[in-house]
Write a structure and sequence with these properties.
With about 400 residues, this protein is an alpha/beta fold. It has helices spanning about 15-30, 40-45, 75-95, 110-115, 120, 140-160, 170-180, 195-205, 230-240, 255-265, 280-285, 300-305, 310-315, 325-330, 345-355, 360-375, 380-385, and strands spanning about 1-10, 35-40, 60-70, 100-105, 125, 165, 190, 215-220, 245-255, 270-275, 290-295, 320-325, 340. Helix 8 (about 195-205) crosses helix 11 and helix 13 crosses helix 16 (about 360-375).
Length: about 400
């Protein structure tokens, strides 16, 4: 089996890059050859972010990096369509030489060229990770044009791809509802997962760490508007009056960083923002949290996906407080058994944190049940599921 993958991000420390890199690395272990076409940013090549490119790869994986500048989001999506058409020529050549059996593409914007040719479409699996237009915060022309293109390309994927991949069927149901089209087959569910070898290595390192003097309440990920990190900051500020050794730890970076720093300084709340870290280092810091809190607001990405950070927290035995979203309910993730559900508003989040920190039995229960639950998110099993197509 030989696989060709076309994905927007392979390098870097964002959730999407980490997810796809781990999935394709697991996939490469089970195939003869894995070709990966991916974007590389100018900053990743010409600044100190070059360290993001230093990742260990399987010997049978061949990377084809495409240098791509960080420009306006509308140009990025239009460029993805053009790149798809150009890369489909490479796909045709590899197909003619019988070099590939399967094409895996993340994002319907990268699928257009491959789905145009029947010989490629018959081998192409396309992952639709979200309702793209819902990811854009404003309601201007950018959202309008990207939304129209996303509608067209998602429909093309549903009509012509060999298989459609989604994180879970809830998202697929929403896609079908919004695009008024259904694929001829059931979707393939490929959720985010964990590499258990990496998890074991991180746990070994943590066992040698000195115990910290603070109670660390944390978040991991990109500091985007919908993540609700501003809600978490206000909740920690409220709790500081009751728990004096509370500290906010944010493992990540993003557009809300200045606002978070300003709020913490104004309220005299101890905090740490690490910036983006290499994945293993981010996992080490995650494992040192007393609780992970994700009070995300309602939007498609949050509502229909179980975040990779929740799964990693389960694997590391870190209790999770999370906003109640459809994907969690549909996967039978139960309140006070696997997670604690919160409302995305400061007072309720503060009450949930306080309830957890005051109850050692509850902390232990969430830890044990989370570690049991995470077995279904093993990347090796997920890769096998993808290859069964």
């Amino acid at each position: 089996m030989r696989v060709l993958a076309l994905i927007p991000s392979f390098f870097g420390w964002t959730g999407n890059a980490v997810n796809e890199r781990q999935l394709l690395t697991a996939l490469a272990k089970k195939v003869e050859k894995c070709y990966v076409i991916t974007f590389v940013g100018f900053k990743q090549v010409f600044t100190d972010r070059r360290r993001e490119l230093k990742v260990s790869l399987p010997k049978n994986m061949m990377l084809i990096p495409l240098l791509f500048p960080q420009v306006h989001i509308l140009i990025i999506y239009l460029a993805m369509i053009v790149i798809s058409c150009i890369m489909s020529i490479l796909g045709l050549i590899l197909c003619a030489l019988k070099k590939i059996n399967l094409v895996y593409i993340r994002n319907s914007f990268l699928s257009m060229g491959f789905l145009t040719f029947k010989s490629l479409a018959e081998k192409t699996i396309v992952k639709i990770p979200a309702i793209i237009e819902d990811e854009i915060p404003n309601d201007g022309l950018t959202k309008f044009f990207i939304g129209k293109a996303a509608d067209l390309l998602d429909r093309l994927t549903l009509a012509r791809a060999r298989k459609v991949v989604v994180n879970n069927e809830s998202l697929y149901d929403e896609i079908v509802k919004r695009r008024f089209l259904k694929h001829r087959d059931n979707p393939v569910e490929i959720p985010p997962g964990v590499n258990f070898q990496t998890i074991r290595q991180v746990k070994k390192r943590i066992s040698r760490e000195p115990h910290h003097k603070f109670i660390n309440v944390g978040f991991i990920g990109s500091l985007n508007w919908w993540q609700g990190v501003d809600i978490l900051v206000k909740a920690v500020t409220l709790l500081r009056k009751k728990i004096t050794n509370l500290r906010l730890v944010i493992i990540g970076d993003g557009e809300l960083r200045p606002l978070i720093e300003k709020t913490c300084k104004a309220s005299n709340t101890p905090y740490e923002i690490t910036g983006f870290l290499p994945h293993e280092e981010a996992l080490r810091r995650l494992a040192m949290l007393d609780v992970l809190v994700l009070p995300s607001r309602k939007m498609t990405s949050a509502e229909f996906n179980i975040p990779i950070k929740v799964i990693e927290a389960w694997a590391l035995g870190v209790p999770v407080i999370v906003a109640r979203h459809h994907a969690l309910i549909r996967n039978n993730i139960r309140n006070f058994e696997h997670v604690i559900y919160c409302k995305p508003e400061p007072t309720n989040v503060a009450n949930c944190i306080s309830t957890l920190l005051d109850n050692d039995y509850l902390k232990s229960r969430l830890k044990v049940n989370g570690e049991k639950l995470v077995g279904r998110f093993d990347y090796d099993k997920i890769a096998e599921k993808l290859l069964m197509v």
